[in-house]
Amino acid sequence: MIRCTLLLLLLLPSLSVMGVGALGTLYEEVQAQRILERKNNDARLKRFTAARDQQQQLLAEARALLIEEQATAARLEKTFETNNGIIRNREKTLEGELGDAGQLRDHIIQSAVSLHETIENSLVSAQIPNREQALAETIRNNELPPLDEIEALWHLQLQEMVEMGRVVRFQADIIDRTGKRLEKQVIRTGLFGSVADGRYLRYLPGSGQLLETTRQPPTRYRDMALKLQQSASGIVPMPIDPTRGDLLAELSRTPGLEERMKQGLDQGGVIGWIITGLGIIGLTIAIGRLSVLLVLDRRIRRQLEATTPNRPNPLGRILKVYRDNPEIDTETLGLKLDEAILRELPRIRWGIGTLSVLAAIAPLLGLLGTVTGIIETFQAVTIHGTGDPRLMSGGISRALVTTVQGLVVAIPLLLLHSFLSSRSNRIIQILDEQSAAMVAKLAERQPSSTQPEQAVSHA
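^ that's the sequence the OP posted. Answer follows.
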């Protein structure tokens, strides 16, 4: 209606132009349009009314369904509570009926878990892999395992105990120091260790592989491993590591003589080098003097068995003095022999005093290095504080290295000095004895010349 009125208002200016027929036609079109709109509005109102009635019906159905579901939920909840009570009662009944069977089940599962961990870490698994898979089903189930699984558990425990006391050879892939995987013959000594080509191996539980350790124990242990691998029967000595690799690792990390010397020189600094130099000088002197004294001792022994004097030895030169002066008196001969012995003393005792001085200087230098090292350590502590105890312990360790070096040098030098002194004193004693014997022989040959002298002396 409103639309028709608006249309008439818009067409009013043109009514004067249009005729009566045209106006009638327009009126008819407006009436037709009005009737059509009324029909559309009636249809829409019917649809809205139908939809409203349908929504009310759906709402009523939903409310009825809600009431029905609430009743069902209440019934199911009551059923659940009833069943839950029945389950609890039956569990109590089951526990009472099982009795020791429940404890047996728990014990078997616990034993299976413990054995599974033992087998994973066992060296036997390098020879017999995947043994622990037989225990997986027993551990996974929370029920009493069947008889075959219990027997498998027992057999695995028995196998582990038997293999503990066996020495077995088998072929296995090992990883060498360069990371290459090689197939070699491995000897397993119980559960404690394994070797291949005279080198000790380490078992990696996670991967089940045998790894050749980078640092091997000292040579004597490797020789034992090589002899064991080369032997066919009998008893062969072999070290056993009851910690399954921990002691071997600690033994492998122990520095050797060369490493200790290198660490001592690095940590000892200038004083360490000086002490080492003194030790080398003293050792060189000791070796040289030892060889000289051994040669002199051998020549003197030969001279004692000979009748003619031999110049290349001290005793021969002393005998030469005796032979060259057959007519002199005993007093003059004694003085000449003493002079000859005094000429031999520097050659015999050369370098022995130097060894004594070096043996006394070495520990003093070590003490000097220790004192200076401790002073530097406390200076570092003053600057950086005591928050890190490794700073102080490391500094004191480096400071004590020079003391160790001084003692290591001084003790052998003292022993060598004592040994060389005894050897030289022995040679000098032989020369003194032979000189006294020569004077006695001369006195026996000249009795007449000595008696007047004695008479004059008495007068």
